[in-house]
Amino acid sequence: MRDKKNLLILVLIFSLIGGGSFFHQQYIKQVDSYGAQISLLKDSTKIKDKQINDLTYERNILLERVSELEKQQEQSNKVIEDKGSKATYKITHYSSEETGSSMTASGKVAQIGRTVACNSLPLGTRVRIGGNEYIVEDTGGMGDSVIDIYVGSTSEAMMLGTYYAEVEIIE
After folding, report:
1. For 86-169, which CATH class?
2. Which of 16, 21, 117, 169 is deepest in the core (most CB within 10 A)?
3. What is the sign, positive or negative, of the torsion defined by CA atoms of 158, 64, 168, 109?
4. pLDDT for residue 79
5. Looking at residue 103, what DSSP letter applies?
6. Can you tell me the distance from the alpha carbon of 171 to that of 167, in angstroms, rounded to the nearest whole number?
């Protein structure tokens, strides 16, 4: 214990007579090193937080999609019973210019004269509208009694407008 006291007294005397700047510099270097490590950890935490947020967002999108598919599966059973039935639907039109992609909810590329979007009929349902046959290959932000027909451009969609028509469920 006495040796430790003597060593402490020597260090104190050394620092008082001019050697203190060396210890001070070492201390500052150590503090700077810790500061750099803290900064790296903060940056790493920000990156991890962003990754967590991105994954949470993707998870929520997938959960919404699962919910949509479950709803469509329930409706699928109803459509089988309704094969050949007719109902009046609100008809609208859309294009890939509006959506930013021609990829449909079914995973197929939308085609003019074939693709329609509908939330109240399951994907794959074939329908007849005004003598033309279409396949429900997409879904969207429309209501339950709406069928959105895929067309070539936004201007064509606007020109065709919105109207009500009898829709026959083919299969």
Report:
1. mainly beta
2. 117
3. positive
4. 52
5. B
6. 12
Q: What is the signed CA dihedral for 85, 88, 89, 93, rounded to 10 degrees?
A: 100
What pLDDT, on the 0 to 100 scale, is given for residue 22? 63
CA distance 14 to 78: 92
Task: Enter the pTM of the model.
Answer: 0.54
Cβ atoms 165, 148 nearer than 8 A: no
For the chain, domain boundaries:
1-82, 86-169
pLDDT tens sequence across 49-99: 888 888 899 888 888 888 887 776 666 555 544 677 888 999 999 998 877
3 state SS of 84: coil
Please give the helix or strand (H or E) that residue 162 lies within, else none.
none
